[in-house]
Amino acid sequence: MTVSEKDLRMIDGPTLEALLPVDAAIDAVRSALLNGLDPSTTPPRTHVPVSAGQLLLMPAEHGGYAGVKIAGVAPGNAQLGLDRITGAYLLLDAATLIPLAVLDGAVLTLRRTSAISALAVDCLAAPDASRLLLYGTGPQALAHAEAVRQVRPLSRVDVAGTRPQRVDAFVEQCRSIGLPAAAAAPDAVRSADIVVCCTSSASPLFDGDDLAAHATVVAMGSHTPEARETDTATATRATVVVEDFATALREAGDVIIPVADGDLDASALVPLADVVRGGYLPDAGRPRLFKSTGMAWQDLVVAARAYRGR
To answer: SS3 for 310?
Structure first.
């Protein structure tokens, strides 16, 4: 491949969405794992404190490309009507490290995060799973609802949130794109086939003892050791699937807390790659929990797919 500085492309959010629909993003992460990508070789995320929150630096290399995402996490942005997650992605030619493209970091994060979650749902959820319980009313929640319906025939989307007005507005937003949404009842977790947690909560959102035995849970809202969206009952009842052992034990409070308390054996964690490649078949008689922290390899393979085109 011959590249030069003049080849640099600027790929903004709307262009990225057009270049890489949800189904293509799911295929990008699935194909990377099927073709042997090893998540454990991905460098760890670097956290840099700044006045507005923190900067996250996420580099990776795979398949002829290298890249780095610089993401900003600004908790105060919500009060200003701005996105909590900001940033940009720089895609490079791996052989020369010459820049190829700069991509919208916020849209890329939505695409890759919802794609890896949907891939996990596709591998873990019952084939006829159709009732989704969604915690959260932000951009990630909507992206996840759209991604999950790519892999399962959703008959109902129950929306749970802390602010009724935002729940109502989010329900209408879902309905406008054809999702059969409604505000969740207090006991909605009992009848959910799929539970997806897309919040900034630092404490569990539901009682894991209420989960149906066939339920699949995705928790993606946190990547710090002290925060978790699911409780110990969920972790101990479920088959726990993670992107990577070391990353989960470094960043995922949903895993770290029950392991530290002696309630969950770290050796029982299952890598998602093993499930995708068919090397591990989840027990259909117990819930399944996919704890995602988001990894740099996911940004890279999705960015590269967008750069190349579908």
So the answer is: coil
